[in-house]
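**Tokenised fold:**
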Amino acid sequence: MYPDSRPYDWLLLLAVLGLSLGGLFHLYTISFVHQSYYFFRQIAWVGIGLGLLVLFSYLRISLWEKVAHLFYLAIFITLLLVLFRGEGAHGAQRWFRLGTFSFQPSEFAKLSLIIVLAKLLAAKDNIGWRQIGLSFCFTFPFLILVALQPDLGSALILLPLWLGMLFLAGVSPRKLLTILGIGASSFPFFYLLLRPYQKMRILTFLNPGRDPLGTGWAVLQSKVALGSGKLVGKGIGGALHTQLSFLPQPFTDFVFASIGEEWGFVGTGIFIGLYFVIITRGMKIARQSTNGFTRLVSGGLIILLFFQVFITVGMTIGIMPVTGMPLPLVSYGGSSIIMFFLGMGLLLSMKRFGE
């Protein structure tokens, strides 16, 4: 499309394909007996995501800088509307129904926030408290609207994303420590605002054995499933914890545990290795970026990917509270899959055009 474009970052593209196709194959192996419905829907989401990845890799990142505020406004409106007109499930109201598919605005809020913060923070060489406060004014509405759905996991990941982009923009360590101190001191207040089941998740994280047949069940079974896979796993059809439904949400929240049970340490190591490839390639693209907006967008995407993988895997092994967050490019769910494919398309675009 453009005469000055460069070749694809094939290593990055292959890592993305490896994760999505590996996740698709795993979904097939754990669902083909009773719930092939999930597998065929995921094929559709991966196909749409791949098409959008290719499309976005041909668009210059500067186009997103021009529409950053418009994109933010559109997502803000959808987050507001979903509270009143959205579709509910399991006590949460997070989705819009589009025919046979559902759309979750909170996933795209992450991408929108990265782009609008990049535009704001790249405009200044020296980030002062005014710019920090303004950046928080963009972050806070998304945080509140997502938390009200309620989707506490997606809401909380916006905070490290905001802090990470401040760090990339060059905010001094003293200012960052001040922000962290303010956040830590306000935790008791926010704890009081949590719903009872959210408080119980935090207490169960601190002591999973306090309610082993209730709120602690998921984490305990996740550890059992993950550990039972040992080195090479139990193979197709042999993951009894997953197949017999002892492991809750094996397609979404605890997909990493089901991977560990079926494919063992080797299988989980391959998935983690592919994430490592994406993160290192993304960091290289950020370092080679020629303008602040591009550097912050690429850095923000890598921060988002890293924290979401860390939280999801950490939840599986019991070092993070249960948040109901999908494993990027692997867990079942169209909104998350498509959002991360769009993000990877942006990374490929930055590489191709050297921006």
In short: The two ends are 16 Å apart (CA to CA). The chain has a mean pLDDT of 85. The first strand starts at residue 87 and ends at 89.
